[in-house]
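Input structure tokens:
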């Protein structure tokens, strides 16, 4: 199971936040983006509850994080 997390970070903290995210095994991808949010992450875990716990306890606790928005996909495809 996976989710996408949009992160808003304090200006100038993007590289530090990415460095912290690299240390977390459940983060499979992270990219800087333009727009209302600064980063998009793909996170993976066995259950929705495990994802929720990881996002709320690990990702939101990273220094420089201002806020997150979590998106749970409901249907799609992968090539």
């Amino acid at each position: 199971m996976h989710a996408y997390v949009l992160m808003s970070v304090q200006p100038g903290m993007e590289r530090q936040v990415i460095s912290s995210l690299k240390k977390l095994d459940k983060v499979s991808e992270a990219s800087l983006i333009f727009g209302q949010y600064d980063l998009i992450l793909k996170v993976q875990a066995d259950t929705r509850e495990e994802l929720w716990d990881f996002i709320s306890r690990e990702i939101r606790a990273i220094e420089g994080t201002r806020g997150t928005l979590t998106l749970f996909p409901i249907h799609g495809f992968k090539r």
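The longest strand covers residues 2-9. Strands lie at 2-9, 27-32, 39-44, 65-71.
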